[in-house]
Amino acid sequence: METLDGTEWDVVIAGTGLPQSLLALSLSRSGKSVLHLDRNDYYGGNEAALSLSEARDWATKHAATGEEAHNTTFSHATIQENAVEEGGIKLSQPRAYSLALAPHVIHAQSKLLAALVSSRMHNQLEFQAVGSWFLAEPLSENDGSRSHITRVPSGREDIFRDNTFDLRAKRSLMKFLRFVQNYEEQPQAWQSDAERPFPDFLQQKFGLPPSSHGALLSLTLLPSAANSTSTGSALPLIARHLRSIGVFGPGFGAVLPKWGGLAEIAQVACRAGAVGGGVYVLKKGIDSISSASEDHIKLVLSDGEKITTRWLAGCSDDLPPIGTREITGRMTRSISIVTPPLVQLFPPTSEGGVTPAGAVVIVPSSTADEPPVQIVAHSHESGECPSTQSVLYGSVALPYEQGKTHLAAAVEAVLQGYEESSHHSLWSLCYHQNNVREERGPSTNTIVLAHAPLELGLSDSTFDEVKLAWQQITGETEGFMVFEAREGMEDDD
Amino acid sequence: MSDSPAPSAPKPSSSVKLVLLGEAAVGKSSLVLRFVNDAFEPNKEPTIGAAFLTQKCNLPNRTIKFEIWDTAGQERFASLAPMYYRNAQSALVVYDITKASSLVKAKHWIAELQRQASPGIVIALVGNKLDLVEDEEEGEAQEGEGEGEGEEDGKVRRVSTKEGKDYADEENLLFFETSAKSGHNVNEVFTAIANAIPETSLKGPRGGAGGATQAALGSGAQDNSRVNLNANADAGPKEGCAC
């Protein structure tokens, strides 16, 4: 293997998560010499997709529970493998799985999707529909009998047909949905309530009964408790949901990348970055940063090699600490492989439409002061598990111990929500994730990108930040992620 | 020519990701160049950076569009292959029949593919540069073991057909000896790979936007979970109002 020692680069990028990979790709196509490093022996960083055996290694590496777990991104990882009865469906071979650390839901109007098209990356990706949203009964109200899981009506026709709301509630709901479609143009209707809890706003301004609040809250994909969800944060997200429906096909508004969530986008970006001339090296981190001259940075890599670069970019996890780090979000998460497949969660989005591979199930907490458990379900169509199984990605904005209990109960509620057969979990991984943010002075040539946000609905913040970094490094303003077709890889027709 | 689907029954078209592996200078890029452009550059420069090319392969009952990922040039850091063979349905592992060490490297790649790549991956082992030894082909090509330094331009066969074939049989690989220069067996390799891809792992074109458009997406054909991100470009305004 060749050495990197003594090499000079325009940009060194640390970590192959989604933000870094998009940046590396965009820069490699802007004529910059790019060295893209990852201290791990796999691609994807915090957004990686893991086989079962990789997940085991990953869990061992992120099992810390003590002091050191406070400020690290991942901690408390534990795996539980459940015994299988005689003749039951067993786990398949490790590589039959591609479990996503970042099972985000991407709405149709996300800037990222537009950039994937303008950069032609979408030709290398496969997207599938996140079809239905479901609402389970609140956790404590389940007295041990089967919980009920109801589909959240996704449009006007759905609401008309729904029989859980009375006529008055339906009318109020319609009125609210009409309002949300262009809420920006009616600031007088909500701006004074922006800081108030969203449920209060729904009740007082639209006369919506509490029974309808859960459904509307579920559309936001916000991890916060009902009473801590402000009107100002909920409205844009409900609008995002509604405006996305139908953009890529009837009956759904959000998609997921096949084969392991955001990992797949990051990998495709890396592949394209390599084709664009970027140099990729795994198992190599950055040990120290010092300034070599006015506009050059000297880096010492984990194996002692010294290199220089004009720019350095990465997320805080991949850079030696310099600035102050703060935790901007905390979440306990779980990944459960369940069997038999939860086919009920993936009804067709419309007649003749695409078969959804994803669904969202919200399991509210017993009180409006506690956060809900959010579950993203992926069918085997996602390429993440064998056809006899499904994968449930749970998350809850609670500390580990409490979060783990809530997650387990919520997954159980989903498994017991259908009468036909006895669904059960074969394997699960539970872990805690902090969103670590590091601020660093703007005068340096080091750009610290934020990690992809923890919220399930992928916001545009990652895209915006990468674009800003690209602008800063290239000095260009236009043309981010807009590439011409390359020889030999143009579209066919 | 195959691009305008006949109104009656267009052949199903599927994309297949193929990753190209092998030691430097065994002729990986030349093989692909022969397959894609039916051309050969005698003194090709080493490939800098990675390469991506596509080429269609017409079978009697379907069309396979190969998406070929060439890790060339970057093997020196041994980091590109893992992201290339992720989700690849096929791999072409190339060695140079005039260089024994290149088969050792090829075996190393095959072991890695068997350990890390998708379980059903179709692997073809290819001994390239057959043109260099064609003169002596008749006899049992074989000299001593070592790659003597005095060897001029490696014109002597160092890996017998039997050795390659036996290994391929043992590991359940497709096997060919090729010449990117003359074109011998090159199309055969890709056709054999296309034929060996199980029907079940073909799920419509990966390249959503182009290709056989209507077959691609959303039209409710068989097993259709793929969403076309370009759908909105065809139908109505790009931004905003799906409301």
Automatic annotation (TrEMBL), chain A:
Belongs to the Rab GDI family. GO terms for biological process: small GTPase-mediated signal transduction; vesicle-mediated transport. One of its GO terms (cellular component) is Rab-protein geranylgeranyltransferase complex. It holds the Pfam family GDI. GO terms for molecular function: GDP-dissociation inhibitor activity. This is Rab proteins geranylgeranyltransferase. It comes from Cladosporium halotolerans. InterPro entries: FAD/NAD-bd_sf (IPR036188), GDP_dissociation_inhibitor (IPR018203), Mrs6 (IPR017230).
From TrEMBL, chain B:
SMART domains: RAB (SM00175), RAN (SM00176), RAS (SM00173), RHO (SM00174). CDD domains: Rab5_related (cd01860). The keyword Nucleotide-binding applies. Residues 135-152 have a biased composition (Acidic residues). Keywords: Nucleotide-binding. InterPro entries: P-loop_NTPase, Small_GTP-bd, Small_GTPase. GO terms for molecular function: GTP binding; GTPase activity. Residues 212-221 have a biased composition (Low complexity). Residues 153-162 have a biased composition (Basic and acidic residues). It holds the Pfam family Ras. Residues 222-231 have a biased composition (Polar residues). It comes from the Eukaryota. Residues 135-162, 200-243 are annotated as: Disordered. PROSITE patterns: RAB, RAS, RHO. Gene3D superfamilies: P-loop containing nucleotide triphosphate hydrolases (3.40.50.300). PANTHER family: PTHR47978. This is Uncharacterized protein. The lineage of its organism: Eukaryota, Fungi, Dikarya, Ascomycota, Pezizomycotina.
